[in-house]
Amino acid sequence: MMEQYQITKQAHDNCIACGRVDNNPDSLGLTFMPQQDGSVSASFDVSARYQGYDGFLHGGMISTLLDAAMTHCLFAQGIQALTAELTVRFSTPVDIGQKVRLKARLTGQRRGIYQLEASIIGEQQLLARATAKFIEPK
User: Fold this and answer.
1) Collapsing DSSP states into helix, strand and coil, what is residue 10?
2) Coil, strand, or helix at residue 72?
3) In the chain, which stretches have pLDDT less than 70?
4) How many other β-carbons are positioned within 10 Å of the β-carbon of residue 134?
5) Which of 85, 87, 129, 138 could form a disulfide with 119 if both were Cys (CB 3.0 to 4.6 A apart)?
6) What does the buried/exposed string (b/e) look like for 80-91 if buried means 16 or more CB atoms within 10 Å of the residue's CB?
7) In the chain, beta strands by DSSP E
8) Which residues are bridge partners to 85 per DSSP?
9) CB 62 within 8 A of CB 94
10) How far, in Å, CA of 136 to CA of 27, rounded?
């Protein structure tokens, strides 16, 4: 499975979220690790470079992190799919300067449509969560 994950991830070598920094100097360089339960997780240092309002991570960045986690959850299962729908719930502002944990898991699939959920957790507190539908490109 890990070999398939690496092959699938190569489709994202230039990605803003998880691409190789030597291919895309603006990449966040996220590294997701497959977990025993089929989910994936990664850590992210919240930098002032990505803030919106003073002292808080920009909502678009939060959405990007959640989307990337779900994409990698599919990669870990050898699936390449595109985000078709993304719903984000912002629970608590994400403070600049902290390290957060990103997590995602597959919750269902039917006829080439995959349902996933993801979360951002900081200091044992849920900061944001998302649900999404992904579709395989034709």
Assistant:
1) helix
2) helix
3) 1-11
4) 24
5) 129
6) ebeeeebebeee
7) 33-34, 40-45, 82-90, 99-110, 113-122, 125-135
8) 133
9) yes
10) 24
